[in-house]
Design brief:
Structural class: alpha+beta
Shape: globular
Radius of gyration: 17 Å
Bound molecules: D-MYO-inositol-1-phosphate, calcium ion
Helix content: 25-40%
CATH architecture of the largest domain: 2-Layer Sandwich
CATH topology of the largest domain: Fructose-1,6-Bisphosphatase, Chain A, domain 1
CATH superfamily of the largest domain: Fructose-1,6-Bisphosphatase, subunit A, domain 1
Largest sheet: 8 strands, mixed
Number of helices: 7
CATH class of the largest domain: Alpha Beta
Number of domains: 2
Distance between the termini: 40 Å
Number of strands: 15
Order of helices and strands: HEEHEEEHEEEEEEHEHEHEEH
Length: 258
C-alpha cells in the first residue's frame, strides 16, 4: 500500500524541516547575504540556499532515485515515480525583516499527483502535515476549515505579485472588489502559510495570482484534506489560486473572475 510509503516520507520530511527550521531561527538575527531576483523586493538570502541544499542532500541520500523541483535550483530529474516540490523559505521578505510568518514547504507527488505535504513554520511553532485520503494536522492535532460562511464576517488572505508596479494585472482590482464586502483581509506574505491558515480555520478563504508550484503544492492538499476546497490553474504569468471552506470558495470562484 502506497500510503505507508507516503507516511514514511512525510515523517522524514518533518524531521529534516524541523532541523532546518532551527538553523533558520539561529541565523535570523545575524547579518546575511541577500540578492535580488525578479524585482527589488523579490530576493533570496543565503539561508534560502542553505535550506534548499540541506533538504536536497537529505532527500537524495535516502531516496536517490527521486526527482526534485525546488525554487532556487529548479529541476533535478530522477527515475522513480516520486517528485519532491520544495520552497526552502516561503515568505523570504518576512524572514529577512524578522517577521515571523515564514515556512518551509514540501509537497510530494506520486506519478504527478500530490499525495503528501509538510509546512513547517519555525518561528510560529507550527508544523502542518497532510497525506492524501488520511487527513490534515497541525502539531499532531487534526485540523478543519472554518464554518464562517457569510462573506461580511469572513477574514480572507491574499497577496500581490512582485511585478505589481509594472503589470496592471496585479490583484488590485480583485482586492477592491472584495474589500468592501468582506469582514477583513490579511496579507500574511507566505502563500503556503495562507493555505495552512485556511486549512486550520484561521482564515476563511484565500486567493492570489502569479504563484509557483512550490508555493502551493503542500498547501492545496492540506486545504482539501481539512475539508475545504481549493483550485489552482495556470495563467501566462503563473498559477492562480482560490481556496476556502466550501461556501467561501464558491463565492471566491464567482467574484474573482479570470
Ligand atoms: C512569495 C510568498 C508571497 C507571495 C509571492 C511568493 P517567496 O514566496 O509566498 O506571499 O505573494 O508571490 O513568491 O518569494 O517568499 O518564496
Ligand atoms: Ca514562495
Ligand atoms: Ca522561497
Amino acid at each position: 500500500m502506497k500510503v505507508s510509503e507516503w507516511k514514511e516520507m512525510i515523517a522524514q520530511a518533518k524531521l529534516w524541516a524541523i532541523e532546518a527550521g532551527k538553523e533558520q531561527l539561529k541565523r535570523m538575527d545575524q547579518p546575511m547575504d541577500i540578492s535580488s531576483k525578479t524585482s527589488d523586493i523579490d530576493f533570496v538570502t543565503e539561508v534560502d540556499i542553505w535550506t534548499e541544499n540541506f533538504l536536497k542532500e537529505r532527500i537524495l541520500d535516502r531516496y536517490p532515485d527521486h526527482a526534485l523541483l525546488t525554487e532556487e535550483s529548479g529541476v533535478h530529474s530522477g527515475k522513480a515515480d516520486y517528485e519532491w516540490v520544495i520552497d526552502p523559505i516561503d515568505g523570504t521578505v518576512n524572514y529577512a525583516r524578522g517577521l515571523p510568518a515564514f515556512c518551509i514547504s514540501i509537497g510530494i507527488r506520486y506519478k504527478g499527483e500530490t499525495v503528501a505535504g509538510l509546512i513547517h513554520a519555525p518561528k510560529l511553532g507550527e508544523t502542518y502535515e497532510t497525506i492524501k485520503g488520511e487527513g490534515a494536522w497541525c502539531n499532531n492535532e487534526p485540523i478543519q476549515v472554518s464554518t464562517v460562511y457569510t462573506l461580511s464576517k469572513a477574514v480572507l488572505g491574499t497577496g500581490f505579485p512582485y511585478d505589481k508596479a509594472t503589470d496592471s494585472d496585479n490583484n488590485v482590482e480583485h482586492f477592491s472588489t472584495m474589500i468592501t464586502q468582506i469582514g477583513g483581509i490579511r496579507r500574511i506574505g507566505a502563500a503556503a502559510l495562507d493555505l495552512a491558515m485556511v486549512a486550520s480555520g484561521k482564515l476563511d478563504g484565500y486567493w492570489e495570482l502569479k504563484l509557483k508550484e512550490w508555493d502551493v503544492e503542500a498547501g492545496i492538499l492540506l486545504v482539501a484534506e481539512a475539508g475545504g476546497q481549493a483550485e489552482v490553474f495556470p495563467e501566462p504569468k503563473g498559477l492562480s489560486v482560490r481556496a476556502g471552506n466550501k461556501e467561501i470558495f464558491n463565492i471566491l470562484k464567482d467574484q474573482i473572475k479570470r
